[in-house]
């Protein structure tokens, strides 16, 4: 392990002392590709499967999963206790939480699982202080809460982002619009739909040769960087929405709070005094992109207490049926829908119909 870490340190040092200009772009692209390969080896070591992290992997329940990431003693456990009513040990010393503590909240009819993860320290992505297990759990979450201490926020924010990025998590980003397809012969074929400031054929070939890829079709649909290309080739990057929680706002003035409110993706809170939790929950709902569908049995009123919760990317009638039970799709005849996704109330729709938030659905089966 230390040899990989030494190699990573050597490459990072070389990148730090290399000037950035057109002449060195090729060399820097090669170094970035090597760095990404070494990082991947760190995450998934070659050889047999590693030992399971004790008490880290928690069974997934509910409609979404949120992980609390942050340095020790920023108030993650207090926040979990006050939000979910689950006791997570709280004390005035660092590293009180040693394993994942799960909790669950109900919000707008959706069950949301909250995970209080142990504090991570600088160098976590290289395996320091259980950091790798913590970030591995964060990779399975549908939303990440980065909890920061408001008295020292921005320095910590950069460090935490760096740790998570080094582990293949991309926060508040969309997957790069790059089409990449391997083939058997024909060399590297690069197509661009707009002018590129960083990537040219030579740089792309250098990066791909590091991965031993000599035949591929690549289409760049925007001004991409070499990091974006490496992300696409690696293919194990996870794009997660993230909210920064600035905790302990009871220790600062109103003027400072006004300034903090202008930071994007940020919610100032006080976990101890339970301040601003409603704003936090509202933002959480917005970032999770969940929609609620109500069911209506024939001849009865819709059931508004237990909605079926779907993700905004998968909202067809078919997804709705699969969420209820896998066998329903085979017996499906048509559905009646009331709500904003249809023109008439009710409207007869097929299995491809896309539903909107708070629609009411009645499914009619084949006899």
From TrEMBL:
CDD domains assigned: DRG (cd01896), TGS_DRG1 (cd17230)
Keywords linked to the UniProt accession: GTP-binding, Nucleotide-binding
Residue runs in coiled coils: none
One Pfam family it belongs to: MMR_HSR1_Xtn
The TGS domain, residue ranges: 289-365
OBG-type G domain boundaries: 64-289
GTP-binding among keywords: yes
Gene Ontology molecular function, alphabetical: GTP binding; GTPase activity
InterPro entries membership: Beta-grasp_dom_sf (IPR012675), DRG (IPR045001), G_OBG (IPR031167), GTP-bd (IPR006073), GTP-binding_2 (IPR031662), GTP1-OBG_CS (IPR006074), P-loop_NTPase (IPR027417), Small_GTP-bd (IPR005225)
NCBIfam families according to UniProt: small_GTP (TIGR00231)
Protein name as annotated: Developmentally regulated GTP binding protein 1
């Amino acid at each position: 392990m230390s040899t990989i870490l030494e190699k990573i340190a050597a490459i990072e040092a070389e990148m730090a002392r290399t000037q950035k200009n057109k002449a060195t772009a090729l060399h820097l692209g090669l170094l970035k590709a090597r760095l990404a390969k070494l990082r991947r080896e760190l995450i998934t070591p070659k050889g047999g499967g590693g030992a399971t992290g004790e008490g880290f992997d928690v069974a997934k329940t509910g409609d979404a999963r949120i992980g609390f990431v942050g340095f020790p003693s920023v108030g993650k456990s207090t926040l979990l206790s006050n939000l979910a009513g689950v006791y997570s040990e709280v004390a005035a010393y660092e590293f009180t939480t040693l394993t994942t503590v799960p909790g669950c909240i109900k919000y707008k009819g959706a069950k949301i699982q909250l995970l209080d993860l142990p504090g991570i320290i600088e160098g976590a992505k290289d395996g320091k202080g259980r950091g790798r297990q913590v970030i591995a759990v964060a990779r399975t979450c549908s939303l990440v809460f980065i909890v920061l201490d408001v008295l020292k926020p921005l320095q910590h924010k950069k460090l935490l982002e760096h740790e998570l990025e080094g582990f293949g998590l991309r926060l508040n980003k969309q997957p790069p619009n790059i089409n990449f397809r391997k083939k058997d012969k024909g060399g590297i074929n690069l197509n661009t739909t707009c002018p590129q400031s960083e990537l040219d054929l030579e740089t792309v070939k250098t990066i791909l040769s590091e991965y031993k890829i000599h035949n591929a079709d690549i289409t760049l649909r925007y001004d991409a960087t070499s990091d974006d290309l490496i992300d696409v080739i690696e293919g194990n990057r996870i794009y997660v929405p993230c909210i920064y929680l600035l905790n302990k706002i009871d220790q600062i003035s109103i003027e400072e709070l006004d300034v903090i409110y202008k930071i994007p993706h940020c919610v100032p809170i006080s976990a101890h005094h339970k301040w601003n939790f409603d704003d936090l929950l509202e933002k959480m709902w917005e970032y999770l992109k969940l929609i609620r569908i109500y069911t209506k049995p024939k001849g009865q009123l819709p059931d508004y207490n237990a909605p079926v919760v779907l993700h905004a990317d998968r909202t067809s009638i078919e997804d709705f049926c699969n969420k209820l039970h896998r066998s329903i799709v085979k017996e499906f005849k048509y559905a009646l829908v009331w709500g904003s996704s249809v023109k008439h109330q009710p409207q007869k729709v097929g299995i491809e119909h896309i539903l909107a938030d708070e629609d009411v659905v009645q499914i009619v089966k084949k006899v």
